[in-house]
């Protein structure tokens, strides 16, 4: 893992991508910090981070699109897969290298609350709690981008898939407000999710038996609930979207709440998609 981590971290800053992305994050956060805190006089650094969450839609696809795709293009993935290094070590080395690149500009902008404190009364605990949550949101987004990069051999496709996934997560609270709360709408939405899960299992296993069985069980359970207890499905899908909204959970920290459950959720999403990436690598090793 250590060798992969060093190689990927060095690769990010050998070219321009690492420097450009770091500079982009620092400049964007710096502009909003100047406009909101220094010029408008708001002594709340979390507002700056809240208004800059859109940068994940730009930074993460560009940061992660080359991580695994480039290995396949140069055929070096075959060396990794046949080396003595474990699959988990390879994936974690790549993931931690990406997170390190992302953490560097955050360490720089972490000076901003100290600048505010030197000229006024600022809650450092609230500011750095929001910065911690901002970092973990980015770490979860990077894990999603790394997984998307493992699904294809084209950088553009990897970037587009990552952007689409993050855009959906970014707009999820708004989408939840547009979805009908009726039991029929929830049944249709959960049916689509069950079908997507079955397709994912088919991609992982290359078998029709397990995905078909899972889909039939889930659909049978949904149908039973719909006909016997339809009230259980009313408003359930919008609630699910709101509870799974990755970026929406950052609002709690902007409102001054240190939400442990949200931090656990960010870490869980990161671990889940790193695990999915490991399974994709394992599947490729034996294919």
UniProtKB/TrEMBL annotation:
**Which keywords fit this entry according to its UniProt record?**
Cell membrane, Membrane, Transmembrane, Transmembrane helix
Membrane topology per the record?
Answer: Multi-pass membrane protein
Give a Pfam family name: ABC2_membrane_3
Q: List, in alphabetical order, the Gene Ontology terms for molecular function in this entry.
A: ABC-type transporter activity
**KW Transmembrane (keyword) present:** yes
Recorded GO CC terms: plasma membrane
Q: InterPro entries recorded for this chain?
A: ABC-2_transporter_component, ABC2_TM
Predominant cellular place of this UniProt entry's protein: membrane
Entry keyword annotation includes DNA damage: no
Locations listed in the record: Cell membrane
- Report domain ABC-2 type transporter transmembrane positions: 40-183
The identity of this protein, by name, is ABC transporter
Native species of this protein?
A: Ruthenibacterium lactatiformans
